[in-house]
Task: inverse folding
């Protein structure tokens, strides 16, 4: 154990065949396996070999440009169900959008995964992000982010209530007496919200974990409030220890008004490691990766990311001032702000900025030795910049093996990371309590009584920012 | 080979811990495992050992009475994804409702399962059945069955078009040239229907089978027309060879007007075997099963099934005339008619009828020796009453093992059933061609040109019957 008397947590964030946008072009990428179970089986077993808390799958409800980008994703919760059969301890978590699903289906999806995996499921709650996603579902546009936010809050309320419709130990299976389940332990919920209603019981008994672990990725003000109400794991993008500490303090500071302890939430920034035995090796790998980016594409992709045409600006020059994006786009505010901050703080040219963003989508990219990365992680953890990291290998599967083989042992030697799983559920790995019935309702009521103004504060924030984006861990 | 110069097809229909309503009370039922992967793993591996074409999972979007009935179901497509990892050849099929899902999500769900299983997926298309299902999704009532039917037709149209948005071999993955996919082979679909619209490409490449196998369960007139348009496997409930032959002729007779051959559809009635080495053993097993039914419950359950209060009628007496149910209930017509026909034809008392229905939900219940069952199956198959059977063991897992160990070998000895899988996809097992792009659109257009009146006939039938019910294989 280090200074914190607890250990850090690790997620293996799987995104196409690597987080680097052009990582699929790397000779060692597994791009041919993107729709093949064997590719994911190897990744999950590597993460479990490294004693990771969990594997995390992103989700996007559209096809991005297929010619130059790895595109398409298997339905992630199905994929996790398949992976539950080839792993024993690893947490299995995925993004599912509240905007393009029914609460009953989502409650059932994660309850089923939690049963199949015997308590290893987690749901990354997002509201999706783009109009092109709306088009696939027969809508003209993606709902504006304030509305999505409001809807998501109700959605999660319905889902957690449905998980509670079966009490623990409701199944009796008394053949002689002819009693399958204790009827007094299976109750209908009747919920009428502004956006979602439900009346009935879920068709799956209460998940082994009570609730599958609730994950959330919003970093902005209202995102933090949603996180404080529901989030148990928070994915975030942070570019400096100071910013990470400020975020950590801010989100954890809101927990008390919801009746929650600081330990009931684990904050895990994204971290993309480009590492080697020596600094030279790491730098060489970084250059190899950056060389995969067609320079002709940087301006176009950066323009798309910022929703601002940069084609008239010199690529070696600085980024111009980008107009306040909240008016122009939908839910992209914190991403654009982060990009502008990064460009200014590090004096990056348009070309350099584009390269950085295509490398890790706004997350921390670390280039250095295995020891240096361990030092970096230890510092952030011990100085309360985070409770762990969501590891985003630039090229998969190889860079996950490299992290497991070279960095995990150092963290273990320092007592910062487990050498064996102590428990068997994801909640146990993360040190999160198993929720009782109506966990969040109760905490909301406590919050109301204690703070009085909590709900007003909440309402005041609606309309400013999305809960999270479909690219979990991105700065949405 | 027998008289037909082809072999019959077998499905292993998994429904709770057995199809007998009180089969869960049987000492050998696996009721404790209903939410445990190991229970299903054993069943799937048994079906594969028996060289079954496929395993079939029903789905219900509500909880039936939990105190005396096995209740709750894991999300079936996730479960199949998990089972794909512990089987190699077995087809993996499940019910998914068109009424409570989005076409984009369903297209993706089955495309993902088809990739994970390398071409073994099948979708049983149903529209769900009951108001209690609607309540779970925030609706006041289940849509009336004509409307559901119309919606389902559009739903399937959208799903098949989405499967076609990626042509075969669209993935290129040329690292040097930086080309992930051939952009000319990934096209957006733009579909604006009355009920569903979509604009974009699916986020999963074309399924290995082109389309996962499309399964359908409607037996009535409009159900047969839907089947003739889209159905490749038809589950049906038939109580006599004559009725089965009439159904077979009727549905297959409609195929030509859709430009389809007779072999492009496999008709598989449900069959619940209660079998033994001797007739005495089979009869003893039947009595054991019937003894599990609490006699106090027969009247209530039969009343619920018929939507008609039978409590004033003597249980030893005949069933009274039940009023035309189409007005009173929603989509239950053919089920109620089947029940009334069964009671009249076999002169059953209310008690006997209830016992029969709780045994196999209106499907053929066969009581006899292994040889007698093989004779029965051979007769129905060779006399064109069917192309195979969907086997509905009354108690699971044991009765599936029994069928595989004792009946399959007889069918194999007679040349009626495969001794080894010849292909590796479900289409190959079933002898169904792999569809090209826009398979159904093309056949619809052919049908229009050829018949002219096909669409009018279709429209005239709308409003009379549902596509199918959530209990696939039931007489809906």
Result:
């Amino acid at each position: 154990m280090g200074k914190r008397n607890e250990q850090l947590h690790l997620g293996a964030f799987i995104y196409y065949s690597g987080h680097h946008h052009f990582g699929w072009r790397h000779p060692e990428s597994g791009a041919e396996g993107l729709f093949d179970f064997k590719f994911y089986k190897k990744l999950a077993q590597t993460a479990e070999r490294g004693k990771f808390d969990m594997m995390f799958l992103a989700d996007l409800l559209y096809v991005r440009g297929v010619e130059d980008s790895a595109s398409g994703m298997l339905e992630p919760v199905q994929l996790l169900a398949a992976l539950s059969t080839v792993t024993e301890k690893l947490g299995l978590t995925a993004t599912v959008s509240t905007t393009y699903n029914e609460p009953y289906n989502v409650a059932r999806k994660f309850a089923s995964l939690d049963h199949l995996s015997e308590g290893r499921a987690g749901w990354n709650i997002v509201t999706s992000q783009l109009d092109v996603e709306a088009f696939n579902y027969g809508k003209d546009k993606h709902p504006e982010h304030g509305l999505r936010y409001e809807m998501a809050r109700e959605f999660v309320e319905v889902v957690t209530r449905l998980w509670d419709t079966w009490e623990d130990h409701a199944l009796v299976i008394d053949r002689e007496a002819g009693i399958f389940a204790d009827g007094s332990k299976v109750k209908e919920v009747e919920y009428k919200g502004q956006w979602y209603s439900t009346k009935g019981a879920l068709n799956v008994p209460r998940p082994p974990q009570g609730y599958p672990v609730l994950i959330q990725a919003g970093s902005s003000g209202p995102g933090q409030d949603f996180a404080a109400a529901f989030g148990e794991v928070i994915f975030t993008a942070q570019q400096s220890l100071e910013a990470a500490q400020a975020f950590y303090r801010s989100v954890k500071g809101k927990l008390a008004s919801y009746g929650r302890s600081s330990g009931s939430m684990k904050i895990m920034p994204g971290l993309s490691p480009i590492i080697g035995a020596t600094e030279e090796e790491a730098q060489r790998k970084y250059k190899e990766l950056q060389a995969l980016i067609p320079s002709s594409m940087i301006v176009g992709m950066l323009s798309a990311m910022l929703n601002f045409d940069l084609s008239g600006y010199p690529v070696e020059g600085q980024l111009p001032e980008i107009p306040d994006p909240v008016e122009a786009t939908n839910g992209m505010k914190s991403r654009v702000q982060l990009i502008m901050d990064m460009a200014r703080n590090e004096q990056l040219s348009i070309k350099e900025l584009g390269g950085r963003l295509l490398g890790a989508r706004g997350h921390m990219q670390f280039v250095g030795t295995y020891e240096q990365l361990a030092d970096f992680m230890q510092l952030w953890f011990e100085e309360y910049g985070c409770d762990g990291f969501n590891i985003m290998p630039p090229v998969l599967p190889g860079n996950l093996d490299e992290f497991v083989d070279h960095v995990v042992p150092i963290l273990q030697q320092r007592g910062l990371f487990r050498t064996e799983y102590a428990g068997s559920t994801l909640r146990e790995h993360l040190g999160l309590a198993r929720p009782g019935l109506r966990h969040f309702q109760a905490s909301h009521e406590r919050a109301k009584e204690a703070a009085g103004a909590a709900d007003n504060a909440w309402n005041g924030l609606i309309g400013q920012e999305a809960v999270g984006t479909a690219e979990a861990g991105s700065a949405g």
Remarks:
- Chain A has 17 helices and 13 strands.
